[in-house]
Amino acid sequence: MSPRVSDGGAGRVIAGTARGLRLDAPGDVTRPLSDRVKEALFAILEPDLRDRRVLDLFAGSGAAGIEALSRGAGVATFVERDRKAIAVIRANVDRSRLGGTAARIVESDVLRWLRSGLASQDGAWDVVIIDPPYDKPDLLISALEILGGESALVSASGVVVAKHFWRDQPPERIGLLASDRARRFGDTALTFYRVVQPAEAQL
Fold first, then answer.
1. pTM: predicted TM-score of the whole model, two decimal places
2. Residue of 29, 24, 28 whose CA lies nearest to 96
3. What is the pLDDT of residues 39-65, one digit of tens each?
4. How far is the C-alpha of 140 from the C-alpha of 156, rounded, in Å?
5. Is the separation of the CB atoms in 124 and 50 below 8 Å?
6. Counting beta carbons within 10 angstroms of the beta carbon of residue 56, is it exposed (0 to 12), middle (13 to 18) or buried (19 or more)?
7. Which of 127, 152, 118, 35 is nearest to 72 (CA)?
8. Cα separations in angstroms, 63 against 9, 148, 194
């Protein structure tokens, strides 16, 4: 079983309109996205981030979605089932002044929400960030399987980012998702997926 790994505090917003804002963390119920990982993640995402639709799954402190909004994303939806974490996300979004119609906070089990049809009611997502507990890698695989299904959850030019314990590398291909790069930061790894055409997925 993978260890419970902590990335430290929730850190701060690295860049954009809310730059420098310190984010609260919901204690031991999540592993907040560290500044180091956040900076590397958004260095890759930012060129195609402006006005895009971002989905922050297992959102924890909301650090990923808030960073995306700060850097110009059009919409960010945060999905988290823990009530303490939901309260922290609300507080962080309010303090960032990035809320309004741009931020939506959903208190729900992530897999149930993805399967419910609510995830796709406003169209496909351009950026999806998945950050489940490290000791439950099955949640990551299940989320990838749903997103990689032929359900139009991810746009044709979209990217899905899986954050995970570095030893628990997810599959290179999963449905219509294919990994095209990976980065490691100590015990944390990021695997980036792009959408492939059905014919490519069968190769």
1. 0.90
2. 24
3. 999 999 988 899 999 999 999 999 999
4. 21
5. no
6. buried
7. 127
8. 11, 24, 22
